[in-house]
Specification:
Number of strands: 17
Distance between the termini: 51 Å
Structural class: alpha/beta
Number of helices: 22
Largest sheet: 8 strands, mixed
Strand content: 5-15%
Radius of gyration: 28 Å
Length: 575
Amino acid sequence: QALVTFRGGPILLALATGDRSRLSDEDWQLFRLSGTSHLMAISGLHIGIAAGIGWLLGRGLTILFRGPRCWVLQPILAVLLAGIYAWLAGFSLPTQRAFVMVCAGVLAGAVARHIGRWQAWSLALLLILASNPLASLQPGFWLSFFAVAVLLAIFEREGGWRSIWRAQLMLLVGLAPFTVFFFKQFSLLSLPVNLIAVPLFSVFVVPLVLLAVMASLFSEGLPAMIWTVADSIVSVFIDALEYLGAYESYYLVQRSLSTESIVALCVIAAVIMLPKVVPARYLALLCFVSLIQDVDSRPKMGDFRVDVLDVGQGLSVLVQTRNRSLLYDLGPSYRGGFNLADAAVLPVLQYEGIGYLDKLIVSHGDNDHAGAYETFLGAMPVGEFLSGAQLPRAKPCLSQQHWHWDGVDFSILSPAPALREAAGGKNNSSCVLLIQSGKAKLLLPGDIEAFVERELLTLLPEGLTVLVAPHHGSKTSSTPEFVAHTQAQWVIFSAGYKHHYGHPALDVVERYRRQGSLLVNTADRGMISLELGPNGVKKSEFFREKHRFYWNAYPNWDSRSRFMIDSTYNAIKSE
């Protein structure tokens, strides 16, 4: 409540309690662009300061009472305050790591035993992995532990103010491979900005925040004064980030890098962090050339790639030609702000290095397809926006619309103007998109039902290469006549795993199976990627088979058996 009126209140609240719910999407965008997102988390610095305050309080009480056993107050209060603060922050991975290391150091100091920095670091690593082995799958685990390892390596060899600047450089270089690998981007501004921001927050903002929190337990006027001082510093920081944000295109490297480039970054980090006795180690910075090399992963002329994203019970399909990109639907959004556009769609576009979308098609107005389209439009520049529903900023999606990209033909087959008005943005108003290149034909029908399927029989070519099943495989779609006419070689279902709707329906699955189609489901395979050329499917890739973890079931069964088991379970459950 005390921070509501302050401009930097959301940042101060995040630093004080770990509550980042009041930080807006625009705030996170600024932090991401400048590489300062790590400052918004309660980290080892906070836990260390809290433990230090506890140690000083214990020291004061020991001097005051002068009892023979009062010495235990120092380690007890240090661990207690550090533990309370870590608990207040929700015991995130960085706070767990910091708390374990603080406890190790305090215990060693209390019993007058020496414990090395690397011993404390290793102990934290061991305890966290023993209690939560899956922590190793989180980017925060690698970033937190490796960042501390870099700092330990630097401060173990050097001291003084110069070591602080060197530590910042080493953090930038050392964490670059992890940043590029996990987030597919790298901010060239992160070094100069953090050279100023980290000391600013460490020396001034964080101590002021902790002092204000403690003062609020005993006074009302003093905390307000401290918050005001802290807010003035944070406001200057925000102004600087907003100014830098206007020049994003000049310093943000955002693309998918090859394995060779990732290895080159690791070489940079390893060589530069070697001791000073190693000559010419800074020549490793030449490996940064790999960051500015283009990785030509786009389809050839006349080919196109299709990624059916795993968005649960919904649909989102990315289509790429040699020089153009199209997105069909955005997946669902949910109460509370969570949406698949932010969680899945935008990260895939970022991974593919797509900073501009030539065309966005939202098939119709249902939530599982339209999702957070306003949020998406605010985050990704779009050339043309079409929809079968009357959405703000969208042009009508109507039959007979046609365009040609890089040797690939795109045609809208439905809805006709009268049908679009009658359906009112619901299932039968879905944009039906046909993509063709030679013999390869892909159909994206949205959520059309039996009525529209019958209307399309005269417009659709026979023998589709790939069909994204209408309405997620619902019983209201995929009529026998439609299935027999399309004769799709591949049928892709985009459905939620064991969702209460029971998609795809068992009758529909059996209908396509008898037709001889190869059936795949995002609920089973994750994102499904196909590359098509004039002669048909050239390449297929399934995310969960490429990125398999030890808990993935039935690794040796054929894909159709795996699909049928899950589909049958869904159908029985729905019945």
